[in-house]
């Protein structure tokens, strides 16, 4: 059985995100892992209301920022994927990991 490790990255700091994901891609290629991506998703503009006090109605101008996203997949190479997931990523990057188990075609389920 093959494992596919899906990595989703999100950050408000586009430069750090691009640099981190590119460095990760180069590391995976150097170690011989099969990697798909990074794939970019459209940025999302987030608006956060800011209140002057706890009572509703009295507000500051809202805080607006963009969230940038990238995704990658590592096919097989379980040991390399495990090392990648255990890395310390910059605090400005949120990382989500999903591992899927793929069965080869033609095998029966018992």
How would you summarize what this structure contains?
This protein has two helices and four strands; from the N terminus they run βαββαβ. The protein has helices spanning 14-30, 78-85; strands spanning 2-11, 34-51, 59-75, 93-102.
Produce the secondary structure layout.
Layout: E1 2-11, H1 14-30, E2 34-51, E3 59-75, H2 78-85, E4 93-102
Antiparallel strand pairs: 1-3, 1-4, 2-3
Write out key terms for the chains shown.
110 residues; alpha+beta; single chain; 50% strand
Describe this structure in words.
The chain is elongated and about 60 Å long. Strand 2 and strand 3 form a beta hairpin. It is of the alpha+beta class. A four-stranded antiparallel sheet has the order 2-3-1-4. The chain contains two helices and four strands, in the order E-H-E-E-H-E. The longest helix is centred in the N-terminal third of the chain and has 17 residues, at 14-30. It is 23% helix and 50% strand. The mean pLDDT is 90. It has helices at residues 14-30, 78-85, and strands at 2-11, 34-51, 59-75, 93-102.
What percent of the residues sit in helical stretches (DSSP H or I)?
10-25%
Strand order, biggest sheet?
A: 2-3-1-4
Distance between the termini: 15 Å
Q: Report the mean per-residue pLDDT as an integer.
A: 90
Q: What is the tally of beta strands?
A: 4
- Main sheet makeup: 4 strands, antiparallel
- Weakly predicted, low-confidence segments: none
Q: What's the Cα radius of gyration? A: 19 Å
Which of globular, elongated, flat, extended, rod-shaped describes the shape? elongated
Helix vs. strand class: alpha+beta
Number of alpha- plus pi-helical segments: 2
SS strand fraction: over 45%
Give the topology string: H per helix, E per strand. Answer: EHEEHE
